[in-house]
Amino acid sequence: MNRDQPEDARFNELMAREFPGGLVPAEEPVPPAKPEPAPASAEPTPPKPPASAPSPIELPTVDLPSDFRSWAAPEEPEEPFIPPPPPPRGRWSAAGIAGTVLVVLPLVLVLFSAFGVQFPMLVSVLAGLGFFLGVFLLLHRLERRPPVDGDGAVV
Predict the structure, then answer these.
(1) Measuring CA to CA, which residue among 11, 19, 143 is closest to residue 2?
(2) Model pLDDT, residue 50
(3) Is 141 exposed, middle or buried (0-12, 13-18, 19+ CB in 10 A)?
């Protein structure tokens, strides 16, 4: 193959070399064609396809066996999907409730102050400390939680 040839000519040459009988083999095996040496001229000429290769129009039809399976999914009877019942919900602990309140209450105070409600400085400082304490408490509980099997992906 020569880099100066157009890509179509290089592709045709590759196909002729790799598949001398065509993509669908003929009924009789065709001997591989010997490559012809390229002429030493200044202009590259596209290679001629071998005469023994049938053209795409002349390809024989292939009878597929009756048990040929297509790529389509098999048809299944229409059955409504009924999901399994959800697992029972876990009970809230006192630490979980306290941590949630300590995170949500300062956020509510920030929302009120956005609408113009003014709180004393002590309430703002306690709300900030409560927020950080609530986040710490929830993260600490999450760390101590035992691992639960079965709530991940099935591989």
Answers:
(1) 11
(2) 59
(3) middle
